[in-house]
């Protein structure tokens, strides 16, 4: 089982090329087709003063420049790139809808973590959250800070037996096949409602071993510690280059709500995170 198609979101922001480079390496390793989707709306200041026709012209010019740079990188990496420039989105909500459409037809989508210092309105602040909760596909979120030359070599799995956690582990199997280390960590396994066996996380570790993945079962009681920060601290201590976890949330009426740990990870992540819902 391997990935056949991967989607990466690109824009003209400072973190886009890093994300694209990581997508190239992953597509080459998986022998997958790489699709790049360019989508961003006009900056807030421009939106107030510029006609739509001029915005579209500017959008096309930026997209062409980004496409040329990405194509050069893909050629150098010997990866077949299928480029898509989305129709000019008039709002950040349209950016989200465009990404949702393409994501639902891919094995994996790669997007960036929201950078609070980039507040020009070109991208939705909740893009990653919306894709995770609405697309039905695994989403690989790349932090805006840091460099990630390696990926899927040292993997940490946050395991709690929930449906979302089960999906995340299954979705991550193609990424974990070549990992040197897979550390499965059950957080607070004896809390009410969790269905662990006699040895927490041992059963899912055995399942991964049947897929040829060397997995180590472990568990941790956080007591008064924050689970999200604990996960990130342990990932850093072990030099993990990928965190796999289920994303928890629901949508009362039109307001999407994330679980506390999921929200904290997306805000403070320091390592790429694969999330499934």
From TrEMBL:
Q: Which residues form the UspA domain?
A: 153-275
Q: What CDD domains does the annotation carry?
A: USP-like
Domain of life, per the record? Bacteria
The Swiss-Prot or TrEMBL record describes its family as follows: Belongs to the universal stress protein A family.
Please state what the protein is called.
Answer: Universal stress protein
Which species is the source of this protein? Answer: Sedimenticola thiotaurini
